[in-house]
């Protein structure tokens, strides 16, 4: 018996890697940026770390007249350019033996029949064991036809109970509640619920998972993680780039649908949820769903939401165009590139604590963070001049790019006088651990192959998120246009005014 199969050793050492069993990953949309920059490099990095078995195969499906060797060259080039781990000829040789390509259109029956024959041959030649995951890296409008083709060709149904078939879909999961329900109905008509993996790559980030470790592995924070001590919570995802070449996708979607509905509401759920009974997927989802179902919108959306479009300005010392001047954007577009909203949670733990969510493009810097801001001490036995520079205590979870946690608190300034000033204690992954954090897609693809779904939202979470966002989108559609804000700043004036009405202000990350 090898060490990998030894249950006693597995129980002793939780650091042992989880290695996927025999399987294949079929990627639809392999010619897109996501596949080239993220998916194919992640597969290689998993192989390079020894987390994929010899019986693994990578199959590409696209409307290109490529032979398998052409696709293999594309994978090779993508890996060379974007892989996180060093290139290894030995790893590449093993991985390349299982690479296949099937050309065809999504509506082409013959192409899917050829795909079915291809995966059958891989079962025989590579030992993939009848286990196949289908990654739909394609626009949601094609999910219906691809899922039906997988069903028609027999690819969606395993031949026996020891085999599995799974489907992976990328956000956006619809563009509103109704479309999300229609999309869920399509996919769940073909695949069982536990075989559907909805990818939100933010949930694969080490720091996002560390929110659960920070909260539930430490007695230090739990007593103050509630409305008695927390003044408010800010969740920020800021980007310093514009839309790039994504005009066709982004215009009409906007910042709120693109980021708040999924990434930021998932972060809110992890920060605000009660301790789950276990980290079993069903227990974790139950607590997240409770939080999302308790979210309450502000009574006045005019005062407690804000949206904007970036105007011309400067980014990194370089002049940049405004959103309405970008290629492919209509000059009268009302799509927001900045969105902010106040949400409240009607639970005993969080009653009266506002959660402020914001996201935007062309902002001051690239940063994603969760800031838990605490109330001021009820009594300060100091002269007022001694605490002039003292702010609120805060715990800041940095999701990217400098992953870690910062705690801000007051400390005496050295000297004979009693003067208190803000200081910080900082934990950073880079200098606290020798282990390098895997890229999010590595963790998520491995979880798909292992059938481990705790980081993947089920349709209930998706629908609850749309129930929160839909009224805001409908209000914006009927009221005015996004406010212009200068590129390189921190968003529109209305967003600052939104917090000022509550006697608060945004953090400058």
UniProtKB/TrEMBL annotation:
It catalyses: D-glucose 6-phosphate + NADP(+) = 6-phospho-D-glucono-1,5-lactone + NADPH + H(+). Residues 26-210 form the Glucose-6-phosphate dehydrogenase NAD-binding domain. The keyword Transcription does not apply. GO terms for molecular function: glucose-6-phosphate dehydrogenase activity; NADP binding. Residues 212-507 form the Glucose-6-phosphate dehydrogenase C-terminal domain. It comes from the Bacteria. The active site is at 263 (proton acceptor). Substrate binds at residues 201, 205, 239, 258, 361. It is an enzyme of class 1 (oxidoreductase). Keywords: Carbohydrate metabolism, Glucose metabolism, NADP, Oxidoreductase. Pathway: Carbohydrate degradation; pentose phosphate pathway; D-ribulose 5-phosphate from D-glucose 6-phosphate (oxidative stage): step 1/3. Its EC number is 1.1.1.49. One of its GO terms (biological process) is pentose-phosphate shunt, oxidative branch. NADP(+) binds at residues 63, 105-106, 171. One of its GO terms (cellular component) is cytosol. PANTHER family: GLUCOSE-6-PHOSPHATE 1-DEHYDROGENASE, GLUCOSE-6-PHOSPHATE 1-DEHYDROGENASE G6PD. Belongs to the glucose-6-phosphate dehydrogenase family. Catalyzes the oxidation of glucose 6-phosphate to 6-phosphogluconolactone. This is Glucose-6-phosphate 1-dehydrogenase. It comes from Phytoactinopolyspora halotolerans.
